[in-house]
Amino acid sequence: MTLMGFRILPLCMPLALVSLHFACAAQTMKRKYLRIILPITDGAVGVILCSFFLIPAWKMNGLYISNVLNGVICFLVVLIAAWIPRKRCPRNLEDLMLIPEGFGAAENDRLDITVREIGQVVSVSAQVIDFCRGRGVDGRRAYLAGLFLEEMAGNVVSHGFSKDNKDHSVDIRVVHKDNDIILRIRDNCRAFDPSERAMITEQRDFGKNVGIRIVYGMAREVTYQNLLGMNVLTVSI
């Protein structure tokens, strides 16, 4: 019985992490129905309901399997909660999390670029500046958008890409909406919160992380999140 527990219970751990992530995301994004239904389903409904049917036939193994099925049921709840408002099957993480398509901006109000090597960073910075100017943004903020993008994306490519032997990319989205410029820089490298480097104030380290500190010092707002293994940096100008 114990041996079967060690064999079966680890299967529920990845699903439990997914359920926990979406429960926290629902709380943060104020999705009131999901943030109530998912915690109730996770354990109170999923495990108890499955155990009611499985324990009479499979004894303690039925309880173990119920924990795995609980994770499956919770994922189905997340899937249905995203399917109903989208009116289609979710196709990616943004769909599952109900993040507004296009980051809440129309196609002509945003610019999407993917960077895979350091040589692309400077040209992408120029594209961002041209995009901002084409949208009527003043020259100073257009330049800052390109500078911030070059500093932060370049830092990811230079340092994050070399930490392991995996394939990496930086997905960049620039949004101009309501006279605001928003940069979203997302990568699949190891977790890295640039705000920790931006706080360095010791005189002996004054020359380090200058680019990061410039961005944090001049941007209107900078936020960092790590979502399902993805670094997501949002810079408002």
What do you see in this structure?
The chain is α+β, with helices and mostly antiparallel strands. It has helices at residues 2-8, 12-28, 32-58, 60-86, 93-96, 121-134, 139-160, 194-198, 210-218; strands at residues 110-115, 170-177, 180-187, 221-227, 230-236. It has a 5-stranded antiparallel sheet with strand order 1-2-3-5-4, covered by helices on one side. The longest helix has 27 residues, at 32-58. The N and C termini lie far apart (59 Å). The model has no long low-confidence stretch (mean pLDDT 87).
Distance from N terminus to C terminus (CA atoms, Å) equals 59 Å
Order of neighbouring strands in the sheet with most strands: 1-2-3-5-4
What's the CATH class of the largest domain, please?
A: Alpha Beta
Major sheet, described briefly? 5 strands, antiparallel
Give the CATH superfamily of the largest domain: Histidine kinase-like ATPase, C-terminal domain
* Backbone structural class: alpha+beta
